[in-house]
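From: lab user (bench 3)
To: helpdesk
Subject: output format question, protein + zinc ion

Hello, I'm new to running complex predictions and I'm not sure whether the block I got back is the full result or only part of it. Here's what I submitted:
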Amino acid sequence: MWIVPSLLYTGNMEIKAALHAGWKGIFLGIIENAVKIFNKEFCVRPEEIKVYEPHICSLCYEVGREMESKFNIPLNNNKLDLSEIIYNKLKTAGIDKIYNIKRCTFHEDDSFFSYRRNKCTERIISVII
Ligand SMILES: [Zn+2]
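Helpdesk reply: Thanks, we reran it on our side. This is the complete output you should expect:
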């Protein structure tokens, strides 16, 4: 299982959300739903939302070939660039303030825990306060 955290927030930090989703949640629209909730419940326009996303990089995320058709995106040596998928979904939803720290929570084993890498109880958490 692979989980990507997406931390959404407004510039004044009044409205915040921490989304944790695997490919299924992303495929089923967790990002789009969060943007709708920001708008309907809090009157926040997409262009007011900022997103911060630390996660596994496209060189490390190996998936089955079925993901190619599911996301309609070519795999590179069975590697899926979920960053690109999420980025495109955020842009389509009207969000343009996307902060990808370009650090990999999988191969940077001196900085991040990764269940996918270690298969142990050590986990990475993402929190927004
Ligand atoms: Zn990596």
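A quick orientation on your result: The mean pLDDT is 86. Let us know if anything else is unclear.
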